Structures are given as C-alpha cells and as structure tokens.
Amino acid sequence: MATMDKKNVSMNDVAVAAGVSLKTVSRVINEPDSVRESTRDRVHAAMEALGFRANFAARSLKLGRYGCIGVVMFHLSGGAVDMIDGIADAAEERGFALTMIKKRAGEKMTLAEAARRMSQLPVDGMIFNLRQMVDDFETFEAPKDLKTVIITPMEHPTCSTVSDDQEGGARMACEYFLDHGHKNVYFVSGKKESLSSQCRMKGWRAALETRGIEPPAPLQGDWNADSGYAAGLVLADKPDCTAVLAANDCMANGVMMALRDKGLSVPDDVSVIGFDDELYKTIPNSILTSVKFRHRELGVRALNEVVAGLEAPSSRSRTLVSGVLVERSSVKDLRA
Amino acid sequence: MATMDKKNVSMNDVAVAAGVSLKTVSRVINEPDSVRESTRDRVHAAMEALGFRANFAARSLKLGRYGCIGVVMFHLSGGAVDMIDGIADAAEERGFALTMIKKRAGEKMTLAEAARRMSQLPVDGMIFNLRQMVDDFETFEAPKDLKTVIITPMEHPTCSTVSDDQEGGARMACEYFLDHGHKNVYFVSGKKESLSSQCRMKGWRAALETRGIEPPAPLQGDWNADSGYAAGLVLADKPDCTAVLAANDCMANGVMMALRDKGLSVPDDVSVIGFDDELYKTIPNSILTSVKFRHRELGVRALNEVVAGLEAPSSRSRTLVSGVLVERSSVKDLRA
DNA sequence: TTGTGAAATGACAACGTTGTCATTTCGTTA
DNA sequence: TAACGAAATGACAACGTTGTCATTTCACAA
Questions:
Q1: A46, A234, A265, A334: most buried by Cβ count inside 10 Å?
Q2: Smallest CA–C1' separation from B43: which nucleotide?
Q3: What is the rounded CA–CA span in Å between residue A98 and residue A85?
Q4: A16 CB closer than 7 A to any strand C atom
Q5: What is the pLDDT of residues A129-183, one digit of tens each?
Q6: Given CB atoms, is A7 within the 8 Å cutoff of chain B?
Q7: Global pTM?
Q8: Could you tell me if A120 and A70 are in contact, meaning their C-beta atoms sit under 8 angstroms apart?
C-alpha cells in the first residue's frame, strides 16, 4: 500500500526484498513456469510492495529489439484515422507498440530524413504514410536493418509498398457507368498534388480508353464541395454528360447540388459516383453511389508486412487493397 | 560508400576506426565543441564509413529518460486527427517523439490498465485521450514518476486535464440565439455515452436556465445526419420552435433538410446552429453557423502540459480551450 | 538412508551508452 | 627553456536487464 518513494525500483531491489537472486526475479517475469510457486508468490509480493516496473531501456538493450514499430505521417488527413486505427490494432495484436513522428506543416521531409530520424528512436521497423510525391522517392534506400513499408500507390524499387487500389477503384466505378449503358464519363479531380487524385484519374482514363472512348477533359477540383459545385455548373451545360465521377464524396455532392440548381435530376438526367462513402454521415437519405476504400484493412496489412519482414528487412512486396463499390441510387440504368 | 554489413556498429567500433577513445566519440555526439576539429572530423568520417547510428536503448538507460511522450487513444474518431496533429507538432518542436497505444474495439480499458501498459514502454510522460466515461476515473492515481495529462471535459482529482470548453461553446451558441431575440432553443444530442454530447447539452441547459427559460425536452440523436433528419421532422411540428442547436454539423444538416422538406425555411422560419464547423466541406455554399473547437490547439496544450510537468509529475492543472462561433446565415435576428 | 536425474536457483558477464575523474597535450608567459 | 593553467582526451564504472553456465535443492527409487 504505502509504496516507497525510492526513485527507481530495480529487479535487484525486488530480489533483495524477496530474498532471492536477481535472476530469479527475471525468471518470474519472463518464464514464470520455471520458478516454484512459493518463490513466485514471494517475488510477486515484493514487486507489488515496491511498485516495481520493468525498465524498458535496459530490457531493449539486452534483447536488441524494442517491440515498437515506427510510423511516419507525411500527411495526416481525415482518412488517416481509420488507417492508424488498423495499424494500431494490428500492432497490439502482435505485441507491438507504435512510435510516431509527423512531417510538420511547411517542412519538406524526404524519405531519407524520415528514416534518419526514425532510426534514432526505439523501433524495429517502420511504416511511411506517403500521400504526395517526395523528392527522393526513387533513390531512397531503407536502412538495411530496419524493415520499411511505404503506404503509397507508387511502386518503389527496393521497399515494400501497400496501397488502396485507387486506380482499380476508379476503373470499377467507370465500368459500372459503362455497363449501365453510359457512353461517356466526366471526371472531377481532387487537388493536383494528391497521389490519390492522380491515381483515380488514371483509372478513370484507363477504363474509358480500354473501351475505345476518348476521355473528355477532366475538371479540376480541390476536394471541397464548392469546387464540385463549380464543376457541376459547367457539366450541366454539356448535353453529352450523363455520368460524372468525382474524386471524393464532398465534390460529388457539390456536383449534385449544382445539377439540381440547374434543373437537372440525379440520377434521371445525370448519374454520379463519388469516393470514400462518407456522404451518408452528413446528408440524410443520401443516394450517392461511392467507391469505398478499406483504410483500416490497409493499416492492418501495412503493419503485418512490417512485422513479417522484421527478420528479412530487405525483402520486398507489393500489396493492393481493393476498394468496394457501395451501390445506392445515383446511377441510372440507360440500357432499358 | 560500401558500408560494412556488421550487425551493429557501436561507438566502440567507431572509436577504434578513428583511433580515439570511446569517450571521445561520445563527446563528438553530445558536446562537439569540446573536441578538437581535426579529431572531430576523423570521428565523423569513421561514423560515416561504418554507418554508425546511436543505440536508443543504451542511451536511454544511461540517461534515465526517453524523449518520448505516450499517447493513449481511448477513442479514435474524426476530430482526433487534428488533435494528434497538434500533439505531434508540439512534441517535435520540443524534441519529443510520440509512443502510441489504442484501446481496441470492444475491449474495456480502464485508466489503470492504460497506465500499466504505458509504463512498460519508452515514455517520460503520457496523455490520455478520453472521450467517454470510464469505470475508474475517480479513483485512478497516475504513476508518481510519470506525468499524466487527461484530455477530458471532466475534472480529475489528481491528474492534470485539458479539454475543449464544450459547455462554454454550447452556452455561447445558446446565448447567440437568445441575443437575437429567440425565446427558446431546442437541442438535438449526439450519442448518449459521449461526453462531448453530454457537455454540450449541459451548456445548452445552463444557458437557458440562466435566463429563466425552461429547457424543452432534448431530442436524442446519434451524430449522423439521418438522426438529425428524424429530429427535424419532429421539430417542424412544434409551433414554438424557432431555434435548434444540434450537437454536431451533420445532425444540424439533417435537421435543416427535414425542415425544408416540411416546407419551412432556414433561417426564415427556424434558425439552426451546429458544432464542429465542417459542413462547408460537404455542402456547397453552406449557411450553417457553427461552434468550432480548436482541436489542434487542444493537442498542443496537452503536450505542453505534459512536458511542463515532467519534473513535477504530481502537479495538477486544468486547461480549457475555448470554442469559436463561426457565423454564417442560419440564424435569423428576431429583434427587428 | 543413499544415489540419481530433474527442477530450481544463483553468480557473473554482457548489451552500448554517458558521467566521473584522472591523465595527457597544448599554447602561453615568465 | 621551464612552468603553468586550460583544453583535450582517456580509463573505468554504472545504468537495469537477460543469457550462459554452474550450483543447489528436490522428489523419488534403490
């Protein structure tokens, strides 16, 4: 009860209090079955009385590992929450904690810089969450003793990567339009520098070209509803526009509002698909069909990849987590 | 260039390579000015050639501190991103990294349990992000050598706490209604177990009672737009309802849509205020006035509080970060 | 009782740093 | 040139664990 105020209680202190050797205390912690029950109880009692807590530094020093995975957030946005959630849950399940650093606003952090900083911290491996291009992407080489996984849609020459299949998701949405009898699909992009936006655009373009359709000029947005609205006003005047793919749900909503304000109906006049499936949170009875990525799963995969590669840091793999089309009623079937 | 593949390069290896003593290498790292330039260069060259990286465990063991702050996420939701962002930036600014663990879905984690787990990890202090009530809140005592800050609207008997001033924010919104000539304010709550929702409701109630107004029965929502819509349908039928405070923007939007569907106009017939100021992202030309909390600032304050208390873990303080009313046009002035 | 092998425990070194204190080297002045 | 104080460097212990290997204790059979 009245725990002593001694600065740090070491295993040695516990050993003395329990009348056993240092090593026996160590055993009680790491291989309890190898010590007699009566002894074990005595040690536990001593630990309790003294308020003993194992010293992380000493343990790690001896063991040569930390039980921590480093996470570098180059970018911390809304969708990142679910991903962190997946990383954290998977980490815990496998007995790891997370050590996190973040690129600061305005700072220009390269992969090399991130690796340098991480390798000063208690980590056995690391995950880079990279949503924008970075200068040294191609040339970067991870520390040979630190398994490194990059979350990014781009392929990396030496590191393992994990990504949503954004391109595939966009292709899926496009084909959904085409399979419903639409002859063309317009595209509203997100911010130019965003890799997600670039990949979604790439998938859209590829899907159209595969069917021999010339993609119309994409409309530039910035992820927010207002930019979608602006795009929608433009699209409302195009007679051949029956299908719009917006790079996220907020812009899709903007497009829909603009169409409505122009006297057009979704889906009767124009069909719309978005990304991320989050509109239902904000719009009651939302009808928007949307491509949803499994960010949580993405995080889980990334962490598992790191842990799997702990023994062979130079191994390399590429994981794509597919998206899902959440169907509602914003796409009209023109085949009737 | 051709870095050796020796498992771990220690300061001793560097010392041998540079022809100096171990301690000199240590000095080059920690107090470069105390070593002659020529020697320093030689050591640096050796470090480079061997690919030396300081061992975190050994350093921490000797120093008795880690340079890491633990973060326990009892709850990881959308608003948490900005908070983490603030924590991470402030941490970096002060030379700390973050070690993070998370309550797993379904798991019932107490403060004591969180503290126990954290104290096995490399941390000098910790932050608990607590958005729901927890069993041992009142009885919990933080480890005496680990400064602990809890992010929660509740006051804690022994730990420092940091919180948005949710109650004050709700009061502010209510008074804004009343100051604009409204005689009463209806309230749509979030999920029952959410402390945020509880505090916002408390502030709403207090503001009305202060002015001698009997608060009407609050409507129960669940944060999502659909529940707001349901509440809106009910409110549309109440002739005395001129003002609605919804516990977040999504529900506020639901309320507005329901009112519109019932033929009522916002703000001409009914005025509405929400919380979090995020509707503009999803709704073009959004008119919703909203109470915005500075989550980033909250994170910064929490981290600073931990760092400030590192030397005196038992100190205790309470910080409230005020909200801001972002005015748009969803509130009608009835005083005319 | 004694002998035996297995189970339980202990002594000691080692992990890679930094602090303490002693020693060497240097530049300056007498 | 000698003497001196300051600057630079080094030897060694210590931080709190765990691994190795030796030793003691135990339960059981002879």
A1: A46
A2: D9
A3: 11
A4: no
A5: 998 899 999 999 999 889 999 999 999 999 999 999 999 999 999 999 999 999 9
A6: yes
A7: 0.91
A8: no
